[in-house]
Amino acid sequence: MMDETRPLALQAPTSNERTVMHVLYGMHTVAWLSLGMLAVIALVANYILRGETRHPLYLAHHAYMIATFWWTVLWLVITSPLYLLFVLPGVVAQCVVGLWYLYRCLRGWLRFNNATLPRGNA
Asked: What whole-number distance in Å separates Cα of residue 59 and Cα of residue 64?
């Protein structure tokens, strides 16, 4: 139940909202197991939940996960032509992108767990 005396932006998130954020970070982190489908599902949830939340920490982490997803897609598209040269450069480049995505997910998840804002947009 919402506290009617506090402004909406200052109300503490519920434990359910916190759990959902952990699940979303988990889905983004293990997305490679599903060839990215878990990331797409989590992305849709990020967009939906971002519109419903007013807590600055949660808004920042939704934006962080969304930006991480789209930057990853951009870098995967940019590195795809490397497969035309030979398979190895493409594999190496996309592995680097995958490791960067994993790093961003884990770093954001740890910062969320410590209730700190994510640093950087990309």
From this structure: 9
What is the number of other CB atoms lying within 10 angstroms of the CB of residue 70?
12
Tens place of pLDDT per residue across the chain (122 aa): 444 444 444 567 778 999 999 999 999 999 999 999 999 999 999 999 999 998 999 999 999 999 999 999 999 999 999 988 888 999 999 999 999 999 999 999 999 999 888 876 55
Contact of 65 with 46, CB cutoff 8 Å: yes
Question: Which residues, 6 or more positions from 44, have their beta carbon under 8 angstroms from its beta carbon?
Answer: none
| Mutual angle of helices 56-79 and 87-113, in 10-degree steps | 180
